[in-house]
Design a protein that fits this description.
single chain, about 220 residues, flat, 2 domains, Arc Repressor Mutant, subunit A
């Protein structure tokens, strides 16, 4: 039977340390044993606060989500602007930690506090004309979009450059990483015109497409 625990070791300290360790080692390097060593304790001491590694991952995901600043729209803020702001802040929170999107994707349970904030968001959306089902579908769709987008960003060997790519040389087709300019003129024109597939510009385009689609759907049902 457990009879004591290390003074000063709290769930908050544990999660903050785990997130810092995540930034250093990535998800693969994050183990309970390594976390215990970082905290200067034996592994069993952690089980006063977490029962399993999955519970630790859930706590880390919860911290990342809450850091984005959940909550309903501000007074006078349109649902479109709020949803854009919410998604942008959520993406920034995921990107703030190495493998942040993977951590959130593995979460199985969120805290009652986070669920309460989510409830407040849904209730606010219904006051803007959404049905409860459409409010839930809209937020979850945008959330899944952000998760997937950041998963792609964080899987890249290097951060994406927002600058426009230079025109490929005539010999670019010989590289396995670049298309043959003669065979893909439309693709290359699209890249030059629209920039890279990842990054702020691409993220905003996809987000605005979903918001405008939702707005059009709502307008069509109220006619």
């Amino acid at each position: 039977m457990r009879t004591n625990k290390r003074p000063g070791l709290t769930r908050r300290v544990l999660v903050e340390t785990a997130l810092r360790l995540l930034d250093e080692t990535g998800l693969e390097g994050l183990t309970v044993r390594r976390l215990a060593a970082e905290l200067g304790v034996q592994s069993p001491a952690l089980y006063w606060h977490i029962r399993t590694k999955q519970e630790l991952l859930d706590e880390m995901a919860d911290a990342i989500i809450q850091a984005a600043g959940m909550g309903p729209p501000r007074e006078g803020e349109s649902w479109q602007n709020w949803l854009c702001r919410r998604a942008t802040a959520y993406r920034a929170s995921l990107l703030a930690h190495r493998d942040g999107a993977r951590i959130v994707a593995t979460a199985r349970r969120l805290s009652p506090e986070t669920v309460k904030l989510f409830e407040a968001e849904l209730a606010a959306m219904t006051s803007h004309g959404f049905t409860p089902a459409l409010a839930l579908r809209t937020i979850t769709t945008v959330t899944y979009y952000v998760n997937g987008f950041v998963l792609q960003e964080q899987s890249q060997p290097q951060a994406q450059d927002e600058s426009r790519p230079e025109a490929p040389s005539p010999s670019a087709g010989s590289s396995p990483d670049l298309p043959d300019p003669a065979a893909t003129p439309t693709l290359l024109a699209a890249v030059h015109e629209g920039g890279p597939a990842l990054g702020d510009q691409a993220f905003t385009h996809g987000l605005q497409t979903m918001i405008k689609g939702t707005e059009a759907s709502m307008n069509s049902t109220t006619r």
